[in-house]
Amino acid sequence: MPRIRNVVALICFAVPGSMALAQILSPLEIRDLQMRELQQKHLTDLKAVTAAISAHSFPYRLYFSRTMDLNEEQQQRMDQRSIRFEKFHTQTVLQITANYYASYSGELMSQEERARRTMQDVMIPILRAAIPVLAAEEKLQAFALEISHHVRKKVLGVSAEHAENVAFILPRAAALRLVAAQTREEQEAVLMLGTLFVDGNPLAGWGQGEANVNAEKDKQEAPGRVDAKPAPRAIPLASTIPLLPGEHQDASRQVAGDATPPARLAAEPRAEVSADGLRKLQSSNQVILDRMVHDLDKQAHFVSYAPPTFVAFHKGAYLQISLTSSLLEKEGGSQYRVAALAFDEHVAHLIRPVLAALKPRPDFDGIDFSTSVRLAGAAGSVESVEFIFPDAALSCYEAYDCTGQQLVNQGFALINGERVSLDLQSAEAGSTTER
Fold first, then answer.
1. Degrees, nearest 5: CA angle 311-314-317
2. In this structure, is residue 81 part of a structural domain?
3. How many independent structural domains does the chain possess?
4. Which of 23-32, 269-278, 424-433 ranks highest by mean pLDDT?
5. Looking at per-residue confidence, does 331 or 325 come out higher?
6. The 418-420 sheet, strands edge to edge
7. CB of 425 closer than 8 Å to CB of 405
8. β-strand 195-198 against 158-171: which pairing, if any?
9. For the ranges 5-14, 217-226, 333-342, the one whose mean pLDDT is highest
10. What b/e string do you get for 112-137 counting C-beta neighbours within 10 Å, with b at 16 or more?
């Protein structure tokens, strides 16, 4: 049985009704304007979610928290507001983070068994409290939970304990099925549609079902869309959160002045990349990816809960690398200037080290550098920027045969989910507009 340090009896978590706001992030503290508006709009709903969670008895102490991996004494002194609307890549999620003071045996329970126990005891009750209240919000695309629990094991005969972080991303469509599930089997099938991470690593077998459902649904409802020219909302964004059923990309808008797509992206017909193929590619290259993260983390600023993952994009297999870019600029200017600075000051400096670290080179089609750009000392929203480059263009840049601008022209640049043309020099001068 799980146990908690220095605690013999099972202790239940409770939040007094007067403390409900203490668990919710204030809208004024959210920098992204869209997320701030959602937080303000649903403040009363979030209070109801907190009240519903407080009515549930958890096996061990649970604290909402904006900081993971704290011991309980530290947690009691820390900020316990964590419920907020947040951007995860390009998708809007309701994010809840918490520290759960249960301790599982590392010898008797596997990693997935520990994650499943925390999901059953903590995540499912939280989801059942939040989903009925917030699922009607059309801008909400997924529920994201991050829960830290503890694992104990013996190292050289000495008992030791460490924190283990579990993250679960459940698309809204799947969330609605979860609350409607009548049996344990139905619930289990729905949960497998979500993506499960342990210490930032995705667990195999999770998160694929919904993507397959969406692909088949899109094919049936829009058979002519396959040959459409990519448009700002028609780019199938490389994300660990699949699109929801019924959320079809808009192919009605065209990008004027688009650079000709690289041959590897434009070639037709191409076979679809299967989920099984992506899993095999991930598995065969995981050691290389882990070493790359270890060696380049200080330079790259990888996102810990979103490790490098192979994803399907334009019928190819792309390595998605999630980053945080901190610019020294006090004033970022337009979003195009911010994106250009993120490329020149951060992403461009990573391309050659990343390619050097990927030896032997995986059999992939390219790399998606997905970064959240923050400005030092400047108030304002965080910009989500993606640079998606085909392998041939990356090799050209690696060999100094292509400039950074030529690399950008051969790939895809997205700002907050919208595809744009990006002239680096003009953007950094502050004179560019979307084309």
1. 35
2. yes
3. 2
4. 23-32
5. 325
6. 309-313, 316-327, 366-375, 383-390, 412-415, 418-420
7. yes
8. antiparallel
9. 333-342
10. eebbbbbbebbbbbbbebbbebbbeb
Q: Which two tokens stand for residue 410?
A: 């051969």
Tell which phi-psi region holds residue 400, choosing left (phi > 0), alpha (psi between -120 and 50) or beta.
Answer: left
Q: What is the pLDDT of residues 386-428, one digit of tens each?
A: 999 998 889 889 989 889 998 998 889 888 777 888 888 887 7
- All residues at 6 or more sequence positions from 223 whose CB lies less than 8 Å from its CB, including other chains: none
Assign 276 a pLDDT band (cuts: 50, 70, 90). confident
Residue 246 lies in a domain: no
Q: Retrieve residue 19's tokens.
A: 């403390």
**Final residue belonging to a domain, choices 149, 174, 207:** 207
| pLDDT score at 335 | 83
Cα→Cα distances 49→24, 129, 223, Å: 10, 6, 40
Asked if 300 and 358 touch (Cβ cutoff 8 Å), the reply is no
Residue 86 structure tokens: 């947040």
For residue 434, the SS3 value is: coil
The two tokens of residue 419 are 């595809």
Average pLDDT of 223-249?
Answer: 34
- Dihedral of the alpha carbons of 52, 53, 55, 60, in degrees to the nearest 10: 170
94-140 residue pLDDT tens = 999 999 999 999 888 999 999 999 999 999 999 999 999 998 899 99
The 3-class SS string of 2-36 reads CEECCECCCCCCCCCHHHHHHHECCHHHCCCHHHH
- CA–CA distance, 299 with 302 (Å, rounded to integer): 9
Confidence of residue 271 (pLDDT cuts 50, 70, 90): low
Q: Residue 121's domain spans which residues?
A: 17-207
433 lies in some domain? no
pLDDT digits 0-9 by tens, 137-149: 999 999 999 999 9
Check whether residue 203 and residue 56 sit in a common domain.
yes
CA distance 97 to 109: 23
Report which DSSP code applies to 429.
Answer: T
Residues 142 and 25 in one domain: yes
Note whether 15 and 54 are within 8 A (CB). yes
- Mean pLDDT for all residues in the chain: 77
Per-residue pLDDT at 377? 58
Task: Give the amino acid at 320.
Answer: Q
Tokens at 83, concatenated: 């419920």
* Domain end point (choices 207, 235, 267): 207
